[in-house]
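To: structure subgroup
Subject: Chain for Friday's discussion

All,

I'm putting the inputs and outputs inline so they're searchable in the archive.
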Amino acid sequence: MDSQQPQKHAIKIDIVHIIIAVAVIAIVLFFVFKPKAADSKLDTAYWAEPFPFGTDPSLHWHAYPKFSLCGEDKTLLQVIDLAGVKFPTGGEIGPMALHVHIDEPWIHIESPPTSRKSITLGAFFNGINIKFSNAGILDYNKPDSCNNGNVNSLKVSVNGEQTEDPENLVLQEGQKILIEYN
């Protein structure tokens, strides 16, 4: 029996060494392959920084989207209907900080948003389960989506000025947003 005791002790020590070695390797790999902010196209400090109003419990902004899809004007409620999204009892869809009411069909931005990234146009559509990207909206996302013989694309303008990155457009009070796919 005494001869097995040192052997069990040696096995326990080997297992502890293996666990420590695996942990050290995992930590080293994490820091070697960890994405760096400099690798990102976006300025992560900008996107992570809370707005000055971030803790204002009374913040309540509105942005007003309009749509032109293959030459047909649509309201936000019509786009929601095209997506097959249904309003629940209470008539509100989307998270608290970024939502729409059935009787107030515009974008509501309410406090406190956690960051700029949480109140982008892309975050709004994602929050109400509508496909949206810089390539298009709903199923309007291919060069021939309109079947009109033209090369179609998404254009988004805010207060008359076109934006190059609509998915990351930070929503603000009073914006008039025109989303066109023609």
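Points worth raising on Friday:
Residues 36-42 have pLDDT under 50 and may be disordered.
Helices lie at 4-33, 44-48, 76-82, 121-127.

D.
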